[in-house]
Design brief:
InterPro entries: Bact_solute-bd_prot1, SBP. It is found in: Cell envelope. Residues 28-49 are annotated as: Disordered. The protein is an alpha/beta fold. Helix content is 38%, strand content 13%. The protein folds into 2 domains: 15-164 and 324-390, Periplasmic binding protein-like II (D-Maltodextrin-Binding Protein, domain 2, 3-Layer(aba) Sandwich); 166-320 and 398-439, Periplasmic binding protein-like II (D-Maltodextrin-Binding Protein, domain 2, 3-Layer(aba) Sandwich), CATH 3.40.190.10. The N and C termini lie far apart (44 Å).
Amino acid sequence: MKKTAALTCIAACGVSLLTGCSSTSAKTEPAEKQGAAQTENSDTQKGGGAPVEITFTVWDYGTTDYWKVLVEAFEKENPDIKVKVTDIGGTDYDTKIPVLLSSGDTSDVITIKSMPIYTSLVEKNQLMPLDDMVEKSGLDMAPYYGSDEGIKIGNQLYGLPFRNDYYLLYYNKTLFDKAGVDYPSNDMTWDEYRELAKKLTSGEGNDKVYGSHLHTWPGSLYRWGMDKDHAMDKGDYQFLKPVYELFLGIQNEDKTAMDYGTLKTGNVHYSGPFYKEQVAMEPMGTWFANLIINAKNKGETSVEWGAAKAPHFEGQDPNIAISNPTPIAINKNAAHPEEAWRFIQFMCSEPGADLLASLGTLPAYQNEKTINTLVNVEGMPEGFKEAITVDSFVLECQMIPQAGAVDKIISEEHDLIMLGAETIDDGLDNMAKRIQKLLNK
């Protein structure tokens, strides 16, 4: 694998970016009601006593394929620990977790869905620092390729990276073949992408096929302007102007992508147009590969797909990815911190990473074995290894208490720009003024 440990934390993490892997909102309930693993084998318990029960709080347990597999594997390997899963619907998760921990709840393991919540929980002293546990366990941190360093706050680590997602370019092979156009390369500029989208757009009305799909999340746009010199917390957002000009040009001038207002009003999930073969190309996170494979296995789509590195602007390095980690943390008031550590160490290091990769999801903990496991999953397209191989990451996150408020401002101004309610210059200027005012409080 070609990676360096150079990561930089440079932007407010959009809440929506980590919701991509699931879209179901379920009632909060213990997942054992859904058939969660509850291994009980008293004859094999370490020490001969009853197992210690730890509570694992997570979102969309019942609708995400890997949680149950990982819990069952952990319990099989650790018969002295029983995992009770508290499943909270993805839509409500970031609202309910702060309330839960503020009440003095003693749940042990907390899955972090968005980085604004992570920074807020650390600021409120609700997560346990893990540095001593890491050192005592001798856990090798090198396979995280710096994603662990990127999520440190005050030089302390409050979670282990479980996933570390970044964007690829997904494409419909059938539509490319019909148009007689070569598949995207791993070194394509946004100008080339725009021209390619024109060649792949055809039809009218309900039968129209769009060459491009640009999702509505703000991070699906601003990430393309980011690098180690340009961040979303610096008070100057003019570096995003070329990105907005590109996206609005594709939408309004070329009409090679569905318009933002339609997508927003219709609450269109990014997977729908791709599954229905209404779009030829779509930039989306690495988690999408897992969703496509599962959808095909369930007969929900017959799309023949491929993946390449995401497009880049001229002068940008295609082998530097803007990534977004998903940490798993321990509650400061955990009833069983030692057992909780054993659980998250399993989930977030090689045992869990191998299982995660075997299900088609990219883990944060990566070595040659996990990557080969991932790319050889049945249904994974040829060339996927080349598409996901990068030299280094830049983390799309901002480790400040105001991260959630910054994200809200960015989302509001992004809406206005994309809907044409304000010009690009005015929107970026308003974004800068509002965020600077917030950070100066």
